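Exercise: predict the structure of this protein bound to nicotinamide-adenine-dinucleotide.
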Amino acid sequence: MGSGIAQVAALAGFKTIQFDVNADMLAKSKTGIEKNLQWLLDKQKIGIEQQLQCLQNIQFTNRLEDCKADIIIEAIVEKKEAKTGLFNQLALINSSNTIYATNTSSIAVTGIANGLQHPQQVIGMHFFNPAPVMKLVEVIKTEQTDNAVVEAVTQLAIAMGKTPVVCKDAPGFIVNRVARHYYLEAMKLVEEGLATIETVDAVMESTGFKMGPFRLMDLIGMDINFGVSNIVWEALAKPERLRPSILQKQKVDAGELGRKTGKGFYEYQ
Ligand SMILES: NC(=O)c1ccc[n+]([C@@H]2O[C@H](COP(=O)([O-])OP(=O)(O)OC[C@H]3O[C@@H](n4cnc5c(N)ncnc54)[C@H](O)[C@@H]3O)[C@@H](O)[C@H]2O)c1
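Solution:
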């Protein structure tokens, strides 16, 4: 997600710093962005100047001390402590006006904000996968978020060519709350032997969904999607209708995380 968000920001003309602790992931991100830009150029969706400017706009780094910015968009592992830990480290080198936006899919933004010195500067900025393609951005405002921060992030999303929707900080926000059933009911059908993975996907795609639930879980990443299911289920006091799936847990335990590991519900080259 970080790579896609960096691409969108840089293509929109913002000076962008992409930071990752993992040098291999940074290299993969750079190659991926170069490939995407070449595809956009070939399809005449961007010009050569935009392609070059975009690449010039991004600095790839694994040095935290390089990460000084007006707005920081965090897209690391889906763990609250990791997110607050990173924001607290960044707060030591950034100004008191810096905005801390999290791309979390399901962690309460209020909980992240409470772990920081400037909770009024914390907001959710939830992009969808793939970030360069999907238009929606959920802007998640907590009780403490400063209105100027909501406005700045909303304007940033618009400048990035996205469609921002301001949401309250509730479990799963809007999309991930509604979409839980798309995944969970699909897995129940398969667990109960009532339909195959391929059939469910084919049927849902034929009704107009861009991706069937299993193909979509493979794109999102099984660990991320299963993590979201658990967080939403626990935050809503564990209702039976939202109980996470055993089938998906088995995939996570087996390391079959989807496209990123080459195998999930389907296999990838
Ligand atoms: N996958 C999706 O479809 C999707 C969609 C919307 C939001 N999100 C959210 O985006 C975030 C990232 O998800 P992802 O699917 O891109 O995960 P991912 O596992 O593909 O990537 C996470 C990246 O963060 C890096 N990282 C881990 N800890 C770090 C740290 N302390 N500092 C810097 N980098 C660190 C890892 O090296 C890795 O490159 C999560 O919060 C997730 O909920 C994911």
